[in-house]
Write a structure and sequence with these properties.
This protein has 250 residues and is of the alpha/beta class. The protein has seven helices and seven strands, in the order E-H-E-H-E-H-E-H-E-H-E-H-H-E.
Length: 250
Amino acid sequence: MAERLDGKRALISGAGSGMGLAAAERFASEGARVALLDVDEAAIAAAAARIGPAALATPADVRDEDAVRAAVAGAVEAFGGLDVVVGNAGVQLAGQDDRAERLSLDVWRRTVDINLTGMFLVCKHGIDALLAAGGGAVVCTCSPTGLFGCAPGYDAYSASKGGVAGLVRVLAADYARSGIRVNGVVPGYMDTPMTGWVTPEEHDALLTTIPLGRAGRPEEVAAVMAFLASDDASYVTGALWAADGGMTAV
């Protein structure tokens, strides 16, 4: 039986670790060729070598439009086009992000530049490639913090992720008639490098807010991304899919 993503050509940002890496591995396992975009060249080179011939390392800083454009062009040249774009690169500057009156402009700008402007640039150039291919799917990594005021003291991160949620919805409206679906996945508290700063006490407190009672695993979010990228989600666009153990349901 054919794999669900058999023949698909995907580009995934933030693919050097965490959910982006898990998505690259999941997509490849389901038959896709994957371009791994990340600022960490060593990480994506190692990941591409591990995944095998289906993977291509395309280093870029998502804040740099020329670099993103070149990475997308490299994937298009290698694969003959793109069918799927996953915007996943992001940062959460623990210990620097803060509530507004204490938040430095530099931390605000770095967070927004990577999480929102970087998402826009990956979508902009990725969608251009999807238009040339006749359609496709975009999946963006969102956050509960962009939907609810559930992360006091993380004002820059929350605002940047709120912007991503709005971007998903307007891109879905912009490109539906062009055969491009745009959706967001909303991970909750995840066991990834991004949450490595959480103390044992904070970890235990967070688990009390999650009905399933545990942190999520990157591969669990990657499975939702694979669904949204696949033809099984052919009537799904403009949606924000929670993969959060029920965190935002209560």
